[in-house]
Amino acid sequence: MFTPPTDDTPYYPFQVAGNFEFMEVALVASLNQVQVDKLLDLISCVAQGTAQVTLKNNVELHKACDAAAAQPMPFCKHDVTTLYKKEMLMYEVFMHPVWEWALDLLQNELLAPYFVWDAQCVYKYSGKVFKHFYDEPWTADHWWDIQSSLPDVGNAIPFGLIIHANKTKLSSFGTAKGYPVVVQCANLLVEIWNSHVIGGGCVVGWLSYALTPLQVPEDAQEEGRLGYTNLKQTVWHESFVKLLDDIAHYSQTGYSHTSSYNNCVASHVWIFVHLLLTIRWHTCKCPCPVCLVPIDQLHNLTKTYPPHLMDQAQDSLSTYDYSHMEGEELLKALGLQPIENIFWWIRDSDPHVALSFDHLHALQHISNFPRWHGLSHFKNTLNVTFSDGNKKCNLAKEIFYACLDVLTKDKAPEGYCLLHVLASYLELDSLIGLDVHMEKTIEMIEAELLRFSGALKGYIECIERSGLDGLQTDWNFPKAHLWQHISMHGPLKEAYECQSNGRDTASQILCVNKHQLAAKLLRMHIDHHMNWSQVQAQGSDSGLDLEETDGDDPRAFEGHTYLSSPCKPTTMQNIETDCSQTDSAFVDFRKKLSNFCNQCLVSYGYQVQKWIVIPPGLEIREYKYLKVNYESLVDWKLNTNHLQCNPMFHGAPQYDCAVVQLTKVDVAFVHLISIFSCKIPDVCSIDLALMHPFAAKMGASH
C-alpha cells in the first residue's frame, strides 16, 4: 500500500537526486577525498563533453582491464612437489619471471633516462673539505667492487635487483595470510624504485604459505622439527628456482642491452645481474644471516664474529651428501639446513653479503602526545597490533617521552635502565634511517652501537639484581644483533578485502595486482602524452619530470613560507581580550607586538622612520596552517615542512613545534601559539608567528 509523498524533493538537502546517489556510492566504497575529487572531475568532464566513458557495467570494465593487462607478462602457476614422511606433497606457487619484468623496465623508453649504469663516488664540499657520501646503491663501495670484478668485456655493468620476501596478513583478523615476493631495480633513482609508479616495487611472486599436508598455516606438533623445517625450506627455494631461472643464467653470461630514448642511441652495455636481498631469518645456533655469532651472544654488540661464507656452506652441504652425520654437524655449526640455496647460482650474489638491513621491520600519558605532520597518534597502546612498521617506529618515540616522568631512577630503576636502552635505540634508528650517509654518520652509528650494547648490558644486570618476575632478560634474538650489520603489502591487503571472495585468494589478488600494474603503465604513457602536448603548445623544449607534481611538492609554491587555512579577520583588541583569559601568551599582546616591531623590523630590512604604535583596532587575520620550504641537512634537497596551528584539527587541538633560526649561528625549539598577518602602520604588511621558546633550563624538579 502506497501513500502520497509529502515532499517533492525527498533527497533534500541535496540539490538534485544524482548528488545523493553519488554520496551513497562514495560512502559504500569508502572513497577518500582525492578519489571523490577525481571522480567528480571526471563526471564534470563527461557532462561538458571533454571526456567520454563508454563502459556500461563491471563486466565491460573487467574485460577492458584484462585487455590492458595482456601487455605485462602474466603470472604463471607452478606446482612444487617434495617428499615428506614418505608422502609426496604438492604446493601451488604463482610466479612472474623476474627477468621478464626486468626486460619490461629496460625496454621502457620513458624510464631510459633514469637508469644509472656505473658505480659512482660522490662528494659534497662542506666549506672546508670534500665529504664522501652515499645516497644511492651505486654510490656504495660494494657496487664499485662488483663492477670491478665483472668479465673484461666492453661496457660491462651490474644490474642490481632488490628482492623482498615476507609474509603479510591480508585480512583484518589476521586469519588470511600471503607470502608475496617484491622486486625493485637498484639502477633506478631511489625516488623511483621506492614509488608506486612504473619502476617502483612490483609483486613478481606469491609463495605458498600453507606448508603442511592439511594446508593450514602452522602445525604446532610439527613446528620446530628438522624434517618439517627442511620441508618449508625446500618449498621456498624450489619456488625461487621458478622465479630466478633466467636471472641465474644472465648473471653468468651477461645480456647485451642497447639503451635508447628520444630517437637517439644512448649506450650499449653488457648487463650482469646481481641481487640484494631483504629476507627474514630463523632461530638456530647461529641465527644471524651475516655472521657466525652464537645465539646466546646476540645481545653483545661489542664483539665481532667471522662472516658466513658461501663457499663454506657449499662445502658443508657436499659433506652432507656423502655423510649425513658429519655434514649435519657442520651445517648445525653454521646455522644452516641441508638445502641447496638458489642464490648460489647467481654471480656475485652471495646471500650473506647481499642481505641488507631493513630498519623499518626491526622494531616492535601516549594519548596526550603532541601531534604533528607525519607522526601517528595513538589513543592507547594496549592490545594493539600493527602491520605498518612506521607506526611501530612512531610508537617507540612516543613511549620514550611518555615514560620519562613515570620510570624514574628512584621509583622504577629497572624501567629507568630500559629507558636508557630505548634512548640509544631511537638514536640508532634515526641515524640508520638517514637517506644519505657519510663517513661521519657511519662513525656515529658505530659509536652508538657500543652505547646501545652498554645500556642493554646494564639493563640485564639491573633485572637480574632486582629478582622481579616477568621481565625480559633474554635479548639473544637476531633483530637485537643485526644492528651490527647495517649496510607493499597495502595494495595486496586492499585487493583481498575489497576485490576477492575470500576463496582462491592468490589468483584473485594477483589478477587485481596485474590490472593495477597495467593501469600504472597506461597512466605513465597518458601523462607523458599530455605533458608533451602542453610543451609543444607552449613552444618550449624544456625537459619533463617523470612524476606528477602533487600538493606536497616543494615546487607547489614559491618562496620560503606559505600561509593557508585563513580565519575571519579580527582586531588586536578582540584577540587580546578573548585569548588572554585562557592563554597568558596573549596578555599585553599589543604591547609585545609593538616592542617587537620597534626592536626587530629594522634588522629584517624594513624602513622604520618613527616609533611604531599598534592601535587597538589593527586588523589581524590568523591562519591555521603553514608550509615552509627549507634545504634539508640530510640530502641537501628542497623539502617542505607542514605546521599546524589549529584549535581543532581532526577532532583535537594541534599546535606544532618547530626549529627557528634566531641568528646565523643560533637556533631554538619553539611551540607555535598563533600565526597571523597584519599591516604595520606606515611600514609594511607582514606575516608573523607568536611562539613559546623552549629556552628554560631543566632542573631536577622537571
Highlighted features:
eight-stranded mixed beta sheet; eight-stranded antiparallel beta sheet; disordered C terminus; alpha+beta; 702 residues
Describe the structure.
By secondary structure, the protein is an alpha+beta fold. Helix content is 35%, strand content 21%. The protein has 18 helices and 19 strands. The strands form three sheets. Strands 1, 2, 5, 6, 7, 8, 9 and 10 form an eight-stranded mixed beta sheet that branches. Strands 12, 13, 14, 15, 16, 17, 18 and 19 form an eight-stranded antiparallel beta sheet that branches. Strands 3-4-11 form a three-stranded antiparallel beta sheet. A hairpin with a 3-residue loop joins β18 and β19. α11 packs across α12 and α12 packs antiparallel against α13. The longest helix has 34 residues.
Short description:
The protein is α+β, with helices and mostly antiparallel strands.
